[in-house]
């Protein structure tokens, strides 16, 4: 949650093109976390009205078994502070789209 000078926008590819360019389908991430999210290493989830960043357990096991360090990814795991989310709730990541992405990663 530190330096904001090098933010990337991750937009989930959707089957329905009309959803693709909506604010709620985007996440502002640094280059490393953008890559980790796109690769399914980090997941953004929504539970009980709150957003969380989670480390994909299967990916974690794979990385650890290969001798890779995942400390930099673990630093962002946990509840996303409300101050890091758009003020307008309609602009926040849509829970259904987050779940769809998680489901795609599990396949």
Description:
This protein has 107 residues and is an alpha+beta fold. Helices cover 35% and strands 22% of the residues. Strand 3 (42-47) and strand 4 (50-55) form a beta hairpin. It contains five helices and five strands, in the order E-H-E-H-E-E-H-H-E-H. Residues 1-9 and 11-19 have low confidence and may be disordered. The N and C termini lie far apart (30 Å).
Q: Indicate the percent of residues in helices.
A: 25-40%
Work out the radius of gyration.
Answer: 14 Å
Helix- and strand-based class?
alpha+beta
Strand-residue proportion: 15-25%
What is the general shape?
Answer: globular
Largest sheet: 3 strands, antiparallel
Order the strands across the largest sheet as they lie in space: 3-4-5
Oligomer: single chain
> What is the CA–CA distance across the termini?
30 Å
Number of strands: 5
Mean pLDDT: 76
Low-confidence stretches: 1-9, 11-19
What count of helical segments does DSSP give? 5
One letter per element, helices H and strands E, the order comes to EHEHEEHHEH
Topology readout:
Elements lengths: L6 E5 L5 H4 L5 E5 H8 L3 E6 L2 E6 L1 H9 L5 H4 L3 E2 L15 H12 L1
Antiparallel strand pairs: 1-2, 3-4, 4-5
Entry summary:
The protein has 107 residues and is α+β, with helices and mostly antiparallel strands. The chain has 5 helices and 5 strands, in the order E-H-E-H-E-E-H-H-E-H.
Keywords:
single chain; 3-stranded antiparallel sheet; disordered N terminus; globular; two-stranded antiparallel sheet; 5 strands; 107 residues; alpha+beta
